[in-house]
Design a protein that fits this description.
Elements lengths: L22 H4 L28 H4 L7 E5 L6 H10 L4 E5 L5 E2 L8 H5 L2 E6 L9 H14 L3 E5 L12 H10 L5 E5 L7 H4 L8 E3 L6 E2 L4 H13 L8 E2 L7 E2 H12 L4 E3 L3 H10 L4 H15 L9 H6 L6 H12 L6
Parallel strand pairs: 1-2, 1-4, 2-3, 4-5, 5-6, 6-9, 7-11
Antiparallel strand pairs: 8-10
C-alpha cells in the first residue's frame, strides 16, 4: 500500500461510486483514537476490519466529529459499533433503549441530540412498518442542517427494482437526489442470524416458514457489518456505491436445517406451510398487520425461485470472502444448544 493513499481491497467501490474532485473537502476523513434488529455479543474484532483503514495516513491528523449509528443496539448496529470503535473511531449508538442516546422515530425531539456533532450516519429506517419515507426524509433534512455529510443506508436485497412507492426505495431515491450528502446503499440478503435470533429459529426441531424449495444466499451479519464499516470509515471511496451482500451459497431452508442438525447433533427440519396461514400466525404472534404483507412477499420471492444469488460484493469491499453457512453454524452452535448467539 502506498503511503498517503488508502483504498479498500478490490479498488474502487463500483463504477457508480465515483469520487468528485471536491469529495475530500466535503467528507472529513481524519480521526484520532476515541472512545435495531436483535442484539448479539461479539468477543473479537473481525480481522477483516484491517482492510478498511490506512493508519499511517491519519496518524498526524485529528477527527473531531462522531459517527451516528441508528439502530445502534440492533443486529448489524452493534457489530458495526464494535468494528468502528475497535479502530479508534468515535461512535454514538442511538436506539429507543440502551443506546448512547435515545432515538425514537416517532419523537422528533430525540433527533436533534442524536445528530449533534455528527458528520456520518448509519441509517436504519423504522422497523416493522411499510410507510415511513416522509419521516426519514424529514430526518435527512435535519441531518443536512446539522452538518452530516455522508449516510450509509440499510435497504433490502433487490430494492433497486422496486417502485418509488415502496418506502425503502423511496428513501434510496431521496438520498441519491441530495446534493449536500454522499451516500452508500447496502441491500443484504436474508441474514444467517435469522436462524439463531429471529423468525427462523428452530422450535421443537422445526423451522416453520413458507419458502418451499426456494433457495437464498443467506449472509452473515458480521459480513454485512464489515461492509457498512468500510463505507463509514472511508466514505469518499464508497460515494454512490450500491452493495448487495450475500453469502457464498444459495441454500434452501431444508439445506440450512441439515447443517444445523449436523453441528448440534439434534434433528432439525424445515416445515413448509401454506404462506397465508404462516403470515396469519406471524401476525397473531404480534407482528403488525401491514408488515405481514411484507413477510408474505419475502417468502413468496424465495418460494418462487427468485431468492438472492451469491455475488462478490463482500470480498470486493473487505478483501475477505463471505462466510459460508457451515462456518456460521459451527460458530453459533451454542445458541441452538441453549447458549448465547454469536
Amino acid at each position: 500500500m502506498v503511503p498517503g493513499r488508502c483504498t479498500p481491497h478490490g479498488g474502487r467501490a463500483t463504477d457508480r461510486a465515483k469520487t468528485p474532485p471536491d469529495a475530500r473537502a466535503r467528507v472529513r476523513c481524519s480521526w484520532s483514537t476515541s472512545t435495531n434488529e436483535s442484539v448479539s455479543r461479539i468477543d473479537l474484532i473481525d480481522s477483516r476490519i484491517d482492510t478498511l483503514t490506512c493508519p499511517g495516513e491519519y496518524d498526524s491528523m485529528t477527527y473531531e466529529q462522531t459517527i451516528l449509528l441508528l439502530g445502534g443496539t440492533g443486529k448489524t448496529g452493534v457489530r458495526v459499533a464494535k468494528k468502528l470503535t475497535g479502530i479508534g473511531l468515535p461512535v454514538r449508538t442511538a436506539a429507543r433503549h440502551s443506546g448512547d442516546v435515545r432515538f425514537d422515530w416517532d419523537d422528533v425531539t430525540t433527533h436533534g441530540e442524536a445528530l449533534e456533532n455528527v458528520d456520518r450516519v448509519y441509517l436504519i429506517a423504522p422497523v416493522m412498518r411499510t410507510r415511513f419515507a416522509s419521516q426519514v426524509s424529514a430526518f435527512l433534512d435535519l441531518a443536512e442542517a446539522a452538518g452530516v455529510r455522508h449516510v450509509t443506508f440499510m435497504s433490502a436485497y433487490g430494492m433497486e427494482h422496486a417502485s418509488a412507492e415502496v418506502a425503502l426505495r423511496a428513501v434510496e431515491l431521496d438520498l441519491q437526489g441530495r446534493s449536500q450528502l454522499t451516500s452508500s446503499i447496502i441491500r443484504p440478503a436474508w441474514f444467517m442470524q435469522d436462524f439463531s435470533e429471529t423468525f427462523l429459529v428452530p422450535v421443537d426441531g422445526a423451522i416453520v416458514v413458507a419458502t418451499g424449495d426456494g433457495a437464498e444466499a443467506f449472509v452473515d451479519a458480521e459480513d454485512i457489518a464489515a461492509v457498512v464499516a468500510a463505507t463509514l470509515t472511508n466514505p469518499q471511496s464508497h460515494e454512490g456505491a450500491e452493495y448487495s451482500p450475500t453469502g457464498p451459497q444459495a441454500l434452501t431452508v431444508s439445506e440450512a436445517a441439515s447443517t444445523i442438525s449436523r453441528v448440534t447433533g439434534q434433528a432439525v427440519r424445515h416445515v413448509n406451510v401454506d404462506r397465508r396461514s404462516w403470515v396469519e400466525a406471524v401476525i397473531a404472534s404480534g407482528v403488525p398487520v401491514e408488515y405481514g404483507e411484507v413477510l408474505d412477499l419475502l417468502a413468496e420471492t424465495i418460494a418462487s425461485g427468485r431468492g438472492s444469488r451469491p455475488n462478490s460484493d463482500i470480498e470486493k469491499v473487505t478483501g475477505t470472502p463471505a462466510t459460508n453457512f457451515a462456518d456460521f453454524a459451527q460458530r453459533t452452535v451454542a445458541a441452538w444448544n441453549g447458549g448465547a448467539a454469536q
